[in-house]
Design goal:
The chain folds into 2 domains: about 130 residues, 3-Layer(aba) Sandwich (Rossmann fold); about 90 residues, Winged helix-like DNA-binding domain superfamily/Winged helix DNA-binding domain (Arc Repressor Mutant, subunit A, Orthogonal Bundle). About 35% of the residues lie in helices and about 20% in strands. It is built from 8 helices and 12 strands. Helix 3 links the parallel strand 3 and strand 4. Helix 6 crosses helix 8. The longest helix has 25 residues. The relative contact order is 0.08.
């Protein structure tokens, strides 16, 4: 739901059905939403198609599959927790020696206490969130307080996670990447639809823009303002922070970055003039 933090989605891989049910309950008790997998093939397919999880939980079964999964998740910046099937695992020291040295990886035993499992999960989720932030910034998907998550069609803004439709997400990202520039209607149409640019009177694009403005609250108080440019298209403007008025002076409440002080205000914006 928009405006609320999404639950942490954990991919759980375990070949034993009864064991999966027990682990699912433990994860739910820890405040996570588990997604169950019997083996790694389906999970790998989902990861390659763009699906992401907040954490990977693997029950070690003696095979080498978990090492491959941990490697794949490391590429995507997804933390992984491996559970050994027996607390008396004789080769634990060897396993620990071979385990990847990274804050995104950890292991413990399947029958570990609830508090230990929860603490390890929370620690990995914290490191995973930090890693995702770094990846997002490296890809240029952070604009002010807005953070775009490709593949999820989600925009984070001041603690909220806002779900967008794929076309809305694509439009919003294009606007933010071109802040200050006027994006022509035909360009936006070609970006979002495969059909020819429609004749006048078709308001499909305008409705999409209106939904993006409403969902992301692109208003001056949030640092960005989305306006229509008559006869051309749309323009996203970065807006300077509000300043406290100086006694004896009349000032404009908000001034979009890049506008000269003596330029005409946007349509619908009141202009201040001394009396």
């Amino acid at each position: 739901m928009n405006g609320k933090r999404a639950p942490h989605h954990v991919a759980l891989i375990d070949g034993l059905a009864t064991q999966r049910v027990q682990l699912r309950r433990r994860l739910e008790h820890a405040g996570c939403t588990p997604v169950l997998f019997e083996d790694s093939s389906e999970l790998l397919a989902l990861l390659c198609s763009g699906r992401r999880f907040d954490l990977l939980l693997i029950v070690e079964d003696g095979a080498s599959t978990w090492r491959q999964l941990v490697t794949v998740c490391g590429v995507f910046g997804i933390p992984a927790l491996v559970l050994a099937g027996k607390s008396g695992f004789k080769q634990a020291h060897t396993w620990a020696h071979d385990f990847p040295v990274s804050p995104l990886f950890d292991f413990t035993f399947l029958n570990c206490p609830e508090i230990e499992l929860r603490q390890r999960i929370l620690k990995l989720l914290h490191h995973g969130a930090q890693c995702q932030d770094q990846l997002v910034k490296a890809k240029g998907l952070v604009f002010g307080n807005y953070k775009f998550h490709e593949g999820l069609c989600v925009v984070s803004h001041r603690g909220r996670e806002i779900n967008l439709q794929p076309r809305q997400f694509k439009l919003a990202l294009e606007l933010f990447r071109n802040t200050g520039s006027v994006l022509e209607r035909n360009r936006l149409w070609a970006l979002l639809w495969t059909t020819p640019f429609p004749s006048k009177g078709v308001r499909t694009l305008d409705v999409c823009v209106a939904n993006v403005r409403r969902k992301l609250e692109l208003f001056p108080e949030n640092g960005f303002a989305l306006k229509s440019v008559y006869g051309r298209g749309y323009q996203l403007l970065a807006v300077a922070p509000l300043k406290a008025p100086v006694p004896g002076f009349v000032t404009a409440d908000r001034m979009p970055v890049g506008w000269a002080a003596n330029s005409s205000p946007a349509l619908g914006q009141a202009s201040a003039s001394p009396h």
